[in-house]
Design brief:
Layout (H helix, E strand, L loop, with lengths): L1 H13 L11 H8 L3 H9 L6 E3 L2 E3 L2 H11 L15 H8 L4 H6 L4
Antiparallel strand pairs: 1-2
């Protein structure tokens, strides 16, 4: 009979779940990301950030946020060079009517 009691105790411990994560509220997420609460709400509305909706409350799992941030990480690319980056001066040539850019460069308006 002692063996049965030991087996039951073993089963109970095998069904235990991992401890619940400490969930963050929207203020904590905004502070952690360095953005406004309004921006976090927009990310939630657009379904761009993992969240938990519990009634009217929004909560965020720190592990899911960490994975989400890692997925957003951009690695440097060797094929992009600075010469392909268009600066402000380059935009003038493409957005101004013909002749305006050359007059601006010569100092006439």
């Amino acid at each position: 009979m002692g063996e049965l009691a030991t087996a039951d105790a073993g089963d109970a411990s095998s069904h235990r779940r991992a401890p619940l994560p400490h969930l963050l509220d929207i203020d904590g997420v905004a502070e952690h990301l360095g953005v406004t609460v309004r921006h976090v709400r927009r990310l939630v509305y657009e379904r761009r950030i993992p969240f938990i909706k519990w009634g009217h409350l929004l909560r965020f799992d720190p592990d899911e946020l960490a994975a989400w941030l890692d997925s957003m990480r951009q690695s440097p690319s060797a094929d992009r060079s600075l010469s392909t980056h268009r600066g402000i001066g380059d935009a003038c040539h493409h957005t101004s009517p013909p002749g305006v850019a050359s007059r601006i460069r010569r100092g006439r308006r």
